[in-house]
């Protein structure tokens, strides 16, 4: 299997685990020293450091009832990214954002995640 095929499969697994709340499954895809950086100024912004913190962030984001629509898995020579459309409603506040979650890989696992958002202000309003 080529590196890009393995990266694509890893992206599929990550999205599948996130969609059904398989936190142990997500943990198995991460290096112990993984980081996840999100923009904005809200309860899920900043950098989560370490696999347990990254899993907890994923759990917290999912707890808001998000629907994680997978648009594309994008691969480079050594890394991958998920192109997502996330939507959710909390009271009168609606989240409707497009994002790219860029994953740098090491030895077949996710070592670094950085998320790029289409609507940081909307994310700040939703994740209070």
From TrEMBL:
InterPro entries (UniProt xref): NTF2-like_dom_sf, SnoaL-like
Give one Pfam family, short name only: SnoaL_2
Q: Which residues form the SnoaL-like domain?
A: 14-113
User: Transmembrane stretches, by residue range?
Assistant: none
Q: What is this protein called?
A: SnoaL-like domain-containing protein
Q: Which organism does this record belong to?
A: Streptomyces mashuensis
């Amino acid at each position: 299997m080529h590196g890009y095929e393995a990266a694509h499969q890893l992206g599929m697994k990550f999205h599948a685990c996130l969609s059904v709340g398989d936190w142990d499954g997500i943990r198995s895809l991460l290096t112990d020293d993984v980081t996840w950086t999100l923009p904005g100024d809200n309860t899920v912004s900043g950098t989560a450091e370490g696999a347990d913190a990254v899993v907890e962030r994923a759990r917290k984001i999912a707890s808001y009832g998000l629907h994680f629509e997978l648009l594309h898995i994008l691969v480079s020579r050594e890394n991958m990214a998920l192109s997502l459309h996330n939507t959710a409603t909390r009271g009168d506040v609606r989240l409707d954002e497009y994002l790219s979650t860029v994953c740098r890989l090491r030895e077949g696992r996710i070592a670094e995640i950085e998320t790029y958002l289409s609507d940081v202000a909307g994310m700040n309003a939703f994740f209070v």
